Amino acid sequence: MSVRFRFLGCGDAFGSGGRFQTCFHLAGSSGAVLIDCGASSMVAIRRFGVDPNAIDAVLVTHLHGDHFAGLPFFLLDAQLVSRRTRPLAIAGPPGLKDRLGEAMEVLFPGSSTVERRFAVTETELPAGVATAVGPVRVTPYEMVHWCGAPPYALRVELDGRVVTYTGDTEWVDAIVLAARDADLFVAEAYFHDRRVKYHLDWATLARHLPTIGAKRVVLTHFSPDMLGRVAPDGVELAEDGLELAL
Question: What is the mean pLDDT of the chain?
Answer without folding.
Answer: 97
